[in-house]
Amino acid sequence: MTEPDSALKARLAALTDGIFAVTMTLLVLDLRVPDGDAGSWVADLLQVADRVDNYAISFVVLSLFWLGHVRMLGRMRGADGAFAFGNLAFLLLTTLVPTLTSQLGEHPALPRPAVLYGANLLSILVCELALWHRVCHRLGNDALADAQAAWHVVRRRYALSIAVVVAGIATALVEIALAASQGLAPWLYLLLIGMGLVRPPLPGGGEKPPAAPR
């Protein structure tokens, strides 16, 4: 078994930071003010305002994924080949967020873009969970005081997040079946943001780990 490589970890961290910076910047390009007469500036601003909510949701969701990745790297001795490929898959999925966010803004009354958006979020969560599994079982450092307890916490946390996204996708599918004119599914993803902000502490870094399950 190859030992974790600290240099590879540093390079992956730099690559991840760069891609997240570009991806989060691309989100704002969808907030274009359309060309129009001087007298229509109020209508133009209102049209942009309809996209601000999608922009804000996606920006905060990406921020939470990035913060989670930073926490993950802080509990690693180094990276190996499996983690590197998983990290690249994670980044591939995050780069799809700006395009799917744009689709939500262009078709706010259609549930189909919400299904694609939710499916991508679900894929990102599953990929990140797989990375955490690798860290907790193979790559953890001294900051991961109890790797087994940490894995149980991470698994429960991501199970809840995945359930929220699945509920959003299911809502979008129901709206498609009912030919709904108002897409409500994207708003369910706000719960994902809330869960990220109030997430429980992860055992490690001096925190007392929970009792191991019997």
Structure in words:
This protein is mainly α and 214 residues long. It has one domain. Helices cover 71% and strands 0% of the residues. The protein contains seven helices and no strands. α3 (81-94) runs antiparallel to α5 (111-139) and α5 runs antiparallel to α6 (147-177). 30% of the residues are buried. The model is unreliable at 205-214 (pLDDT under 50).
Mean pLDDT: 82
Structural class: mainly alpha
Q: Would you identify the regions where 5 or more consecutive residues have pLDDT less than 50?
A: 205-214
Biggest sheet: strands, sense, closure? none
* Global shape: globular
What's the end-to-end separation, in Å? 30 Å
Number of domains: 1
The oligomeric state of the chains shown is single chain
Number of strands: 0
- Pattern of helices and strands: HHHHHHH
Strand content: under 5%
Radius of gyration: 20 Å
Helical percentage: over 70%
How many separate helices?
7
Keywords:
214 residues, disordered C terminus, 71% helix, mainly alpha, 7 helices, 0% strand, single chain
